[in-house]
């Protein structure tokens, strides 16, 4: 039961939209039974928690690549990504954000005030002020989504914010404002959606499946209004709460993370008292999954690498379609291959994403937007934006501009060929309201009259 938007007050003009959500992980299969809940809990370590008691005056504390602070309007520290905010006084925080402890030629300092909160980012990365401000806005929205009460000073919410800041460093979806889908044959995805359609209850507005932090399938109640639509950023924040919150460790929601072969079911309702009705929906969905062995379709899915594509000299890419289908406008999606060996360490992965962020900022510059960027360095980089797609690609060194564009043309043909597998291209709707002449058992039948993805999304 979380607010997906801030409450209506002098700082926010959109009405509060409360929803309830029900999370469920399928019961363990014979393949999973050796994994006890205790083992799963051990996988939950968050990088930010390691530094919770770090000395804020130490050199190691200042060497972190990006600090984030949340303060009250009066300047009282409420949250610090590294170190204990209780050790920070207003005076210390002002000094720490100033020269010479954070030299201005090495760090970018960005402030964002939202209502009674002041958010601060002190970054030694190559990110622009606009990108850092966008990250602070995500932090603010995550705070609001947790029913934030300033009097509680974010007590107990540090893990969620630590997790969000960690995933923003390594997930390009935030930069692209898009969600990544799990590659899956369209027939399997359609079958999963059909199962979700059949298990409904009044005021249930969305049902979707997540695996490995990727969207698998999503269905929508067809009467949901346009202004209630979910955006990619809503999904990112919801995914983060699922991953990080210790509140999801009991009952049917016994673990807040999901290994690649496990699936998380999320049911969203506008009725905050609908938990038990949604639990019944979950039971029906789980029975259907078991009878059709449907979760094995997800477990057997094959992620792809650049070697599977057949494009010469390519090391990695990000592709966000713009006009492939109408749903890419309504729910922006992106695809990328698994990182090759050279980028599998956290440090190298973040370095590559920093290069992408730099190109993203330059190509979307408000003062001088570009269509194409070609750059040679440790890698050859190409950014290409047009009416049909947004592409960021990394090649081996010394690849010419002409060759890079030629290889990307091959890549685009491959993406078009694999589109049904890489993206959610069709999403059925359902109705939770009885119609004259129809029984309650008919309500879950597929409505395929609109094959665009979520007029609402």
UniProtKB/TrEMBL annotation:
Residues 328-419 form the FUZ/MON1/HPS1 third Longin domain. One of its GO terms (biological process) is protein targeting to vacuole. Residues 66-146 form the FUZ/MON1/HPS1 first Longin domain. Residues 434-457 are annotated as: Disordered. Residues 203-262 form the FUZ/MON1/HPS1 second Longin domain. It comes from the Eukaryota. One of its GO terms (cellular component) is Mon1-Ccz1 complex. Plays an important role in membrane trafficking through the secretory apparatus. Belongs to the MON1/SAND family. This is Vacuolar fusion protein MON1 homolog.
């Amino acid at each position: 039961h979380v607010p997906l938007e801030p409450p209506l007050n002098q700082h926010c003009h959109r009405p509060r939209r409360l929803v309830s959500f029900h999370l469920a992980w399928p019961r363990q299969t014979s393949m999973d039974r050796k994994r006890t809940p205790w083992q799963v809990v051990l996988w939950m370590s968050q990088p930010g928690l390691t530094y919770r008691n770090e000395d804020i005056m130490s050199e190691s504390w200042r060497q972190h690549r990006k600090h984030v602070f949340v303060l009250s309007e009066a300047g009282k520290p409420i949250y610090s990504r590294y170190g204990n905010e209780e050790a920070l006084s207003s005076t210390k925080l002002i000094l720490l954000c100033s020269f010479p402890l954070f030299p201005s030629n090495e760090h970018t300092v960005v402030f964002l005030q939202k209502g009674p909160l002041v958010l601060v980012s002190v970054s030694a990365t190559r990110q622009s002020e606009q990108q850092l401000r966008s990250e602070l806005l995500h932090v603010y929205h995550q705070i609001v989504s947790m029913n934030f009460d300033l009097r509680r000073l974010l007590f107990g919410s540090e893990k969620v914010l630590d997790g969000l800041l960690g995933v923003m460093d390594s997930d390009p979806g935030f930069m692209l404002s898009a969600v990544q889908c799990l590659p899956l044959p369209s027939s399997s995805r359609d079958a999963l959606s059909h199962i979700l359609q059949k298990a409904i209850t009044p005021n249930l507005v969305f049902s979707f499946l997540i695996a490995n932090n990727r969207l698998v399938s999503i269905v929508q109640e067809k009467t949901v209004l346009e202004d209630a639509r979910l955006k990619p950023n809503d999904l990112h924040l919801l995914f983060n709460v699922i991953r990080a919150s210790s509140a999801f460790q009991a009952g049917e929601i016994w673990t807040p993370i999901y290994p690649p072969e496990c699936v998380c079911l999320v049911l969203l309702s506008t009725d905050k008292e609908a938990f038990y009705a949604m639990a019944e929906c979950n039971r029906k969905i789980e029975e259907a999954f078991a009878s059709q062995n449907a979760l094995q379709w997800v477990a057997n899915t094959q992620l792809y690498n650049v070697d599977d594509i057949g494009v010469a000299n390519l090391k990695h890419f990000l592709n966000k379609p713009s006009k492939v289908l109408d749903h890419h406008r309504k729910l922006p999606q992106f695809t990328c291959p698994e990182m090759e060996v050279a980028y599998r360490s956290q440090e190298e992965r973040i370095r590559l994403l920093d290069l992408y962020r730099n190109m993203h900022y330059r190509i979307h510059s408000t003062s001088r937007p570009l269509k194409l960027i070609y750059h040679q360095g440790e890698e050859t980089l190409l950014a290409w934006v047009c009416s049909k797609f947004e592409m960021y690609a990394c090649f081996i060194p010394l690849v010419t501009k002409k060759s890079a564009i030629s290889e990307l043309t091959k890549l685009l043909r491959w993406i078009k060929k694999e589109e049904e597998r890489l993206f959610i291209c069709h999403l059925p709707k359902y109705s939770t309201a009885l119609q004259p002449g129809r029984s309650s058992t008919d309500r879950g039948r597929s409505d395929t009259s609109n094959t665009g993805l979520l007029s609402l999304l």
